[in-house]
Amino acid sequence: YWAYRTALQEYAEKHPDQPVSPGMASIIEGLTDEQFFFLAYGQEWCYASTSSHLRSYVNTNDHAPPYARCNVPLRQFPAFAEAFNCPVQSPMRPPREQTCDIWW
């Protein structure tokens, strides 16, 4: 995320007369650059399954299920909550004392 933010900032500084995100973010009306970044991240983990398949996945896979691999890190990331204006104590923005600092 920080590499992405740095690239956006440098682009904006070098090209002040051009929009920062002329691509997909402008196509999906109303998304900010940050929201589009997180949407793209979530798409990587997009996965539909039945409850029986999920049980099988958990019992046979070394990794957490895709929904957990997406949502758990994002719940810990203040930039995500800020990008989507998640209220404090909502599922995607737990109180600070219930989170851990992993990457920042």
TrEMBL record:
UniProt-listed InterPro entries: MetalloPept_cat_dom_sf, Peptidase_M13, Peptidase_M13_C
Top-level lineage group: Eukaryota
GO molecular function term, any single one: metalloendopeptidase activity
SUPFAM superfamilies: Metalloproteases ('zincins'), catalytic domain (SSF55486)
Any Gene Ontology biological process: protein processing
The Peptidase M13 C-terminal domain, residue ranges: 3-100
Xref: Gene3D superfamilies: Collagenase (Catalytic Domain)
Any single Gene Ontology cellular-component annotation: plasma membrane
Protein name: Peptidase M13 C-terminal domain-containing protein
